Amino acid sequence: MSTAAFHISSLLEKMTSSDKDFRFMATSDLMSELQKDSIQLDEDSERKVVKMLLRLLEDKNGEVQNLAVKCLGPLVGKVKEYQVETIVDALCANMRSDKEQLRDIAGIGLKTVLSELPPAATGSGLATNVCRKITGQLTSAIAQQEDVAVQLEALDILSDMLSRLGAPLGAFHASLLHCLLPQLSSPRLAVRKRAVGALGHLAAACSTDLFVELADHLLDRLPGPHAPASPAAIRTLIQCLGSVGRQAGHRLGAHLDRLVPLVEEFCNLDDDELRESCLQAFEAFLRKCPKEMGPHVPNVTSLCLQYMKHDPNYNYDSDGDEEQMETEDNEFSEQESEDEYSDDDDMSWKVRRAAAKCMAALIGSRPDLLPDFHGTLAPALIHRFREREENVKADVFGAYIVLLRQTRPPKGWLESMEEPTQTVSNLHALRGQVPLVIKALQRQLKDRSIRARQGCFSLLTELAGVLPGSLAEHMPMLVAGIVFSLVDRSSSSTIRMDALAFLQGLLGTEPAAAFHSHLPTLLPPVMACIADPFYKIAAEALLVLQELVRALWPLDRPQTLDPEPYVGEMSAATLARLRATDLDQEVKERAIACMGHLVAHLGDRLGDDLGPSLLLLLDRLRNEITRLPAVKALTLVAVSPLRLDLQPIVAEALPILASFLRKNQRALRLATLAALDALAQSQGLSLPPSAVQAVLAELPALVSESDMHVAQLAVDFLSTVTQAQPASLAKVSGPMLSELLRLLRSPLLPTSVLAAAEGFLQALVGTRPPCVDYEELIRMLTAPVYDQAADGGPGLHKQVFHSLARCVAALAAACPQKAAGTANRLVCDARSPHSSTGVKVLAFLSLAEVGQVAGPGPQRELKAVLLEALGSPSEDVRAAASYALGRVGAGNLPDFLPFLLGQIEAEPRRQYLLLHSLREALGAAQPDSLKPYAEDIWTLLFQRCEGAEEGTRGVVAECIGRLVLVNPPFLLPRFRKQLAAGRPHTRSTVITAVKFLISDQPHPIDPLLKSLIGEFMESLQDPDLNVRRATLAFFNSAVHNKPSLVRDLLDDILPLLYQETKIRRDLIREVRPVEMGPFKHTVDDGLDVRKAAFECMYSLLESCLGRLDICEFLNHVEDGLKDHYDIRMLTFIMLARLATLCPAPVLQRVDRLIEPLRATCTAKVKAGSVKQEFEKQDELKRSAMRAVAALLTIPEVGKSPIMADFSSQIRSNPELAALFESIQKDSASAPSTDSMELS
């Protein structure tokens, strides 16, 4: 016998003892054993343990019984299935016992066992088998109605079981429905309530037919409002509708037209409990079926407005009464407020709360009605801020906060360029409400109730975020409210933290001048909070002080407030926290950051406190726990324009900072490099050279492609040191340069690192005397290309040539007297027949960059060399020469541009390369210098719009786009004529050109573009496919980069866009390629346009979600799920995104969405297909499975019978199960992969 088995058998022996204490201790020890993962019971031990525990459930001692029932939970996972079934049978038998105590214990036991059963999703059939065994016994216990206690326990267990395991009980759903429905008319309220809960869970999991039966039953039982019926029966039916609405409201859509008018009528009966149930049902309907509730919104709105102020027992009208009421409140204090909640006679507060919650659901589900809500709901909500009941007040605040969040401008919204649109009018309406809100909250901010004040702070924080600056004129009242909460020692610390957080937010959103006059009032309580013994308050207060210093005494503009009266107090409070060592980590970090801000902003006013502050920062730099915040604080001090004298700490700080560069902590290395750069810029020559060299010795290891950001900061620091202390760098430039040159050969080099490298190289040759000789540096830079075996060895990546060329140009710009010589040498290298391809490519790319600084000398000869190179057999040389021709031409337009235009006319075979040159010239030249040539270029480009090659037309479009930027008001409107009169290729080229005018940054052309964009979008009705595809690409670019251009036109554009997602049979044709013999294959000419349309739809989800009718949108996504491979891939991604962004409408049609996903996941590729077909099908399955995983994140989806069936199909198929598991692992490790670049 194993040790564990022996130990358990000894425990079982003690459980038979006559001493209750022995039995209790033995059961407790068994509980501990069962909770260990390592324990394994043999069959005999299992049987004995189960038998003993079932016996102990009937023990005379209540404590032993309770412990035995708790043991059942861990036991379920340790014994075989048939033993679990034995336990369940025994518990069900006990449920029917005459003894009340045994029935209670059996009920608790069944709930415990059910809660520990492995969910069906794990593939275990145990839960299903156990539930099937219990269900029959529970239904008979419910139906017998002999003992109410048994009935209630059975209903409880059934409800629990349906909520966790509704779908696997599919076979019992009908019998459960027929058993539960009669309980709705039980004379006992408790039975009715539990039946209502169980029916809600059943509604979510049952089949469509049973759901219709349930809905019809409830509707048929609801009498007309004037028909005689007991109030209790009506209340139960309405509560049942509410329960079904909350659990399975997405399935009620089809019944709402019959249902809602009935519920509206019942709302008008004089029964507060019934009104509450009606309003709760409306809330569920609005959340789950917003579209179907559309026609009923006006009536629901008026009911909410009516019942939100339903308070028949209280008179709000007289302010005098209110004052009197408040004094009475103070006299009766706590006693009275507790009685408020238990006042059974007054149910009206529940009606008001339900109305407020319903209003929040209404605002949240219908963002399209915001203007109406601002006119009707907002004033009513503000009026109700004076609500006397705390719970209701919290929900009124909550509803107004939902309104504020819905009004928040969308991401990427630019107020400066928007005309009076929906967003502007909503914000304008909100701005008008601000004084009313402030007036309504004035008394609340000093309310005795903490919860009321917290609600005020939450609401005002949200308001300040939506309308920054709107609270400035109301600052006296806000400051009084903040100070009231900060000095209120009697209440909990939470309200003080909320007040501090609100103050910190205000400092970020309101103008600094608004705080000037209130600083004497605000500062003392904030200082008191900094000294508070509770660490969270101290940390929050330090953050407020930091924000206060940053906002009131900014460094980037003149300071208008004299800090003298306050600086001593602020400094003393922060130093006290900085000196203390026995503090929470958060307070230490905040104190260091706060001191950094104080010294950086007011260091010149600190007087005697400056020295100790700097020494304390140095001390915190040595401590491993506080070194990161100390480094950041030191950076702030170093970059401060006050140019403080840091000599007392620099000599000791530099070696410590040098040691940080060797640490593994990346954040510390980045912060240290920033600090070193700031110190080198501010202190320069006064840094001790020996300490600087110690730092420089650590840098070569950091200049590597393993971490480009660290490399960039290291190179930036090197540039600063080179300018500040060239002598220090001369000693270590060798190893540093070799690492930098290795980095420049990386094909992954980001632009920021390249710019840093250029700056460093320029600094090296720019010092007097230069740290490194110009010629030597050029030779080192170009050596990798020049030393390469002539066209035979392994080549460098294309990107490396561009990087090296930029560096050569940077050196030439730093030494203008040597630039002409460099350019001449490059021309010679480019022309030499002995030069390798790599040398020629580097020469041309370098000339492109150098040509503009070298002057006109070598440029005459350069034309011939570049033209000759355009005919080179090497594609790389041709591309480099084309690029160089454009870039050099941009620097000398009068000489080059007529020549380039002439070549485009004369050399049709080289047109593509020459157009590339023109594109570069248009991009690099100054707009004013191009104006004289604009007409000639315009004419030439439009002559080439009808070219046969799509690639050439694409370059022409980009050239036209760049040309328009030379003179937008004159050239952009001319597109209209081309769109009206041009041929198809010209029209598509014009639309593509417009696409190149859209950038993700604000641009002066935006207002003009916005005024014409509607006309350009009319091209979606163009008869030519290519024009429509180009228009969709342009629309996608606008939605992705600058949604404000098109957001207000979506009502007109979306129908045209959705039209393009449909499969058109007239565009599908069969072709018989020669190489396939007698076989035909199908070509769909409309595929590219459909794909472009679906890409636009995806982009709209990211930036214009609030303007979409999601139900209509989903109709087209649903069609796309059955389309071509490319489109299905897109719609699977869209479906996954929709499941996250707007789960309610997706849930409503989940049954229809599952079928195409199931078809994709179970599809088989024909035997003998090529490898690519198998790969495509695998990728499609993976994408579909990702959509399934995303759908399953919506809580109610798992209860859908069709989804439950598909889930079991996935589990039973090893291939699909493995795929699903791998996708779940991927999504767990990378939660933010739901965004896709489609522009």
Automatic annotation (TrEMBL):
Any single biological process term in GO: SCF complex assembly
Subcellular location: Nucleus
UniProtKB keywords: Acetylation, Nucleus, Repeat, Ubl conjugation pathway
Biased composition regions of type Acidic residues, renumbered to the chain: 318-346
One GO term describing the cellular component: nucleus
Domain TATA-binding protein interacting (TIP20): 1045-1210
GO molecular function: TBP-class protein binding
Domain of life of the source: Eukaryota
Transmembrane segments: none
Spans annotated as Disordered: 315-346
Listed PANTHER family: TIP120
Family: Belongs to the CAND family.
The name this protein goes by in its record: Cullin associated and neddylation dissociated 2 (putative)
Species, as recorded: Ailuropoda melanoleuca (Giant panda)
Lineage: Eukaryota, Metazoa, Chordata, Craniata, Vertebrata
Gene: CAND2
